[in-house]
Design goal:
This protein has 137 residues and is mainly β. The chain has a single domain, classed as OB fold (Dihydrolipoamide Acetyltransferase, E2P) (Beta Barrel), CATH 2.40.50.140. Helices cover 15% and strands 48% of the residues. A 5-stranded mixed beta barrel has the order 1-3-4-6-5. A hairpin with a 5-residue loop joins β3 and β4. The longest helix is centred in the middle third of the chain and has 10 residues.
């Protein structure tokens, strides 16, 4: 059996970083992914796909991705359900990512020297990192 998905799209808003009660970093974001064909009116359609990443990858995504940035995510499709406050069953479909590539060039107008230097430190490996990778510093 295989459950693998790869998407390339632009973030619809800034990623949201939070932590589980056990202290695990979780970042959520939505990618706008254009379809390769046009509809009957000749317009391209776009899918908005919820994505979630964990641990170090979550912190990297929260720090270096932003609304409008182009990114690729590789992971698995997850469909889960929960009971809402009104007692109705709700369904959530999302990509659980274990690999993210930052495809937009880094901003050249960083105001902070520290954040610019930090971004330079990540430039050699921030384009691709997986959940199992350790940050070397």
């Amino acid at each position: 059996m295989l459950n693998r998905i790869i998407l390339i799209g632009r973030l619809t808003k800034d990623p949201e970083l939070r932590y589980t009660p056990n202290g695990v970093a979780v970042t959520s974001f939505t990618l706008a992914v254009d379809r390769t064909y046009k509809n009957s009116q000749g317009e391209k359609e776009t899918d908005f796909i919820n994505c979630v990443v964990f641990r170090q990858l979550a912190e990297l995504c929260a720090n270096y991705l932003a609304k409008g940035k182009l990114a690729a995510i590789e992971g698995r499709l997850q469909i889960r359900s929960y009971d809402g406050q009104d007692g109705q069953k709700r369904w959530v479909t999302e990509v659980v990512g274990d690999n993210v590539r930052f495809l937009s060039p880094k901003d050249s107008n960083n105001n902070s020297t520290e954040s610019s230097a930090e971004a330079d430190n990540f430039s050699s490996f921030a384009h691709e990192i997986s959940l199992d990778d350790d940050i070397p510093f």
